Give the backbone structure.
Amino acid sequence: MVAQLMEGSEAIAAAMTAAGCRFFSGYPMTPFTEVLEHMAKKLPPVGGVCMNAESELEAVGMAWGAAATGTRSATGSTGQGLSLMQESITELSLARLPVVVLNMARSQAEYWQATRGGGHGDWRRIVLAPMDVGEATELVQLAFHLADRWRNPVIVYGDYYIAHTYQSVDVQPIDFGPLPENEWALTGATGGSGRARLVSPLGDTKQRDDVGYDLADYYRRVHAHQVAMIEGTEALVETGHLDDAEVVVVAFGTPGKFVRFVVEELRAEGVPVGYVRPITLFPFPSTVVQAAAQRARVVGVYENSNGQLVDDVRLAVLGAAPVEFIGGLSLDGSAFGIGPEITVPEIRARVLRLCESAGCVPEGVAR
Amino acid sequence: MTDRLLPILPTDAPPTEPARLVDDFTPALIDVGAHNLCPGCGEPIAMRSVMEVIAEQDLMRQAVAVFGIGCYTAFSNNLDCEVLQALHGRAPSLATGVKRAMPDTVVVTIQGDGDMVNEGLQEVVHAAARGENITCVLLNNGVFGETGGHMTATTTLGQRTKNSLEGRNAADHGYPIQMAALLAGLEGSAYVARGAVNTAGNVSRTKRMIEKAVDVQRRGLGFSFVEILTMCPTGWFVETEEAPAYLDGTIAAVHAGGVLKDVTST
């Protein structure tokens, strides 16, 4: 195949379609809107359904219903819209339904929402954070695989840049290996058999088993399943120059790509700095961050929020090195997360200040 | 206790005759005949009617029931019909997802008035406006039965609830929403009817409404809706045997029965 120049939203829609997604529901909200537009174009020709839901609550509800039939389903919004969906997203973990949820975010201030779950209960979800359009086309496909593998929602954390940047991509279906049969999916076919299927966040046992809903038993079993998911999921991470890094900078998503560029630039000028870019925000690549911190004088965290990722970095570092927050909200008047702080000079200046505080900037490096 | 109908069986010796089943009133698609709902509750009768229609129309191999949250949720794991459990108020959007992803299914939602009219009003309104090819059933008793008798959006003026102790009054609590009338006014609805289960005649009429609604769905004619007025003596604070008459005098007086819309009859 030939690579095509595509807007990120279209590339994500193409990747979801290639992954076998056949149901998508959403409510317009920038910068999620264009993904919805492209799914509305791409799904009908392949026999899929795209619903223009009347609210975020209905969007996630529709995806819930479609997922319950075993159809690969996705929904999404921005972080604000995802706030409205949180009740359903958390209960989707209890109903054990695979739904991919896109957060085409306006900032990185939904790190807690994504990784802790903004809703009630203890339930966790795998969170994938691409740094650019090309990586997004792979990670959204992985998201469907992981959702089916663990029968649990998966969050893909994108942003305005990924939604609207044009990049040359060749979207091909990726085979991630075999998946368990979805014998649990509702089709109507088991009615009257004496063992009609039940998909419920309250439990999976029938009264004819003389059990009924035993919430305590069910919650314990879902928890055991979640533990298996967390332990069985490889934390994905990209690192650079950690072998002799005296300063380590942690960043994810689009800012992670900017940090990577700045680190490469500073390395070329002799500054002993390295980077860690978590690709799965949950499970968090704690062992990689901990190992990097063991050799470092300071660990910096750059993120476009008032400091959320920094919590997980501190938990991973466990005091092995000081952890400094060097990020902050990056806002223009639109508050779409496309502000003045996500630039190479700005990020370079912040990383360099951190390196200076650690006393490891050689003479002659441009400030 | 001279009017006892059955003799007291002696327990100091084994019975002389083996136990025998006199009759089994459990419908085919209900797993366990006993339930823990209050005596006099109308919801089991309504559930039974829906399940009987699915069985009698030979739809048991293609039916998916989507449940809301209320006392009737006790039946969501007691059916030999496939069930998808929704959150409070959200059954119509889940039903939409099921039906759109799998158009050969027959999808029926079960919601109470607290679920459908309070928590999730916009869900059912939009499903009706879209002409979504599903059947939504509203079990309306004008009260939050599961929480112990609190006012809902269909509670009628004068009706006593735990948070309208002197009876609902318009000045403090506003007016009840008449769901069937509201949905009948939308272009996307194809069949809208309101029945009740407080008398044998009403149970029969209501079952015919459910049959019609499911038939409309099978023929792909659009959104179908059956509101069923159900007794809740516990939540109404009346004696069990008074509840059918109380239903007639309070909620049925406002939420009047009948077929409000039927596109097949024109």
In short: Chain A touches chain B through 51 residues (CB under 8 Å). Residues 4-169 of chain A form a domain with the Rossmann fold fold (CATH 3.40.50.970).
